[in-house]
Design goal:
By secondary structure, the chain is of the alpha+beta class. Helix content is 41%, strand content 29%. Strands 2-3-1-4 form a 4-stranded antiparallel beta sheet. Strand 2 and strand 3 form a beta hairpin. Helix 2 packs antiparallel against helix 3. The longest helix has 22 residues. The protein is globular, with a radius of gyration of 15 Å.
């Protein structure tokens, strides 16, 4: 099963109006730290909520929860100024595993 991180950012109104630019700034600021971590397993997908454009969720694969928690220790000092500038509250982080659901059916 694939292990994934589901990370949600809560942007202030100004940052939400330019969400792509804001997410690029944040990714540029913390990406190198993540990419050099042994647990890194692939790039993120960035999803902006259509009902609340201030909510942006990142989904990305990681080797394990313990490896990601290790990354968070090194990332905290990088993230705090970004949250203070662009967000209304701290990000939330959840962990999920992909289910092996068969999606290619032959219904004919």
């Amino acid at each position: 099963m694939t292990f994934n991180v589901v990370e949600t950012w809560y942007l202030n109104d100004e940052a939400a109006q330019r969400a792509t630019e804001t997410m690029q700034i944040i990714d540029d600021a913390i990406g190198d730290n993540a990419h050099h971590h042994a647990g890194w397993a692939g790039h993120a997908t960035f999803l902006q909520d259509t009902a609340d454009p201030g909510v942006v969720t990142w989904i990305y694969p990681w080797r394990s929860e313990s490896d990601h928690r290790d990354l968070l220790k090194t990332e905290e000092a990088l993230v705090q100024p970004l949250i203070a500038k662009y967000c209304t509250r701290p990000r939330t982080i959840r962990y999920a595993t992909a289910l092996p659901v068969e999606v290619e059916h032959d219904h004919h």
